[in-house]
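fyi for ur records
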Amino acid sequence: MKKISIIGSLSLLILLSSCFGKAPEQQNAPKMPAPSLKVIALSQKDITIFNEFSTTLEGKQNVEIWPKVSGFIQNIYVEEGQKIKKGQLLFKLETQTMNQDAKAAKAAVNVAQVEVDKLRPLVEKGIISTVQLETADAKLKQAQSNYESIVSNINYSRITSPVDGFIGEIPYKTGALVSSAMASPLTTVSDISEVRAYFSLSEKELLKFKESIPLNQKNQFDLENANDARLVMVNGEEYPEPGKIAMINSIINSTTGSATARVDFKNPNNLLTSGSTGKIKIPYLYKNAFEIPQKATIDLQGNKLIFIVKDDNTITTKPIRISANTEKGFIVTSGIQPGTTIVTEGVSKLRDGMTINPIQ
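which gave:
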């Protein structure tokens, strides 16, 4: 029994020796160094961003050409896509029947004129009453009106362009019977010397859009001094000419919940065409704003947070309210003081109260 007791005592001494022998080593273990992380000091500046809206382009004028009288197309003097001038002859309708009607109407005018000329001296001499002359004169005026109407219809058979522009599709060919009651026009003339880009904005976008436009002395939108807009064409390239905001419809469509606006672009080289699509880029200016890099933020329960570096190099989280997004990050217009230093890397591994070694 003594032998067993001695062995047990020795085992206890060895165990205690091993435990107490390591305590000083653990107490003197060096602390982990503070991580070195990049930081930036925030400064206010004016920031312009562009919001994009889908658009459909229309020529300055898209004029549908309709015949005013019925008839067969006798001649077509233009080609589809041709550039034309105002007053240029486009179509000629067959007028043989109308010419015959005109001859008959002219003859009726002559007969009525002869009757008036015959009765007038008889009235002057008191041989017949004035009623007969007045009746004859009324028939003469009716005959003249009928003749002038037929002549006008003959003139309408020559169809000219009311504007400068480009000829669209011509669905009807020579010999086709056309009238003002047909389903589609003879053609469309598009004036694309200036192109209009229409786009829709939501109620929230419309409010922001209005905030970006200056007011004149009459407290009305000063569109002349508004920032220029840009157009991204369907091929992804930006149109070289800037556009001017020409119209803002402040009435919200109750069905779509949106309003319409328009930007006009000069088109000296006819690069843009009516019916094309693209994207309108509208500039928005944020004055005295901060731009927070996206990599400097974390998401927590739907909120964006940043880590602010205090004077003692400890960090603390701060929620931010984002006004807009940029290519690099987020625009913040309030809630931050100029000169505030934030961490811009490794933020996903940080926590409140940590100490860092800031690197500018």
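Residues 123 and 130 are 6 Å apart (CA to CA). thats all i got for now
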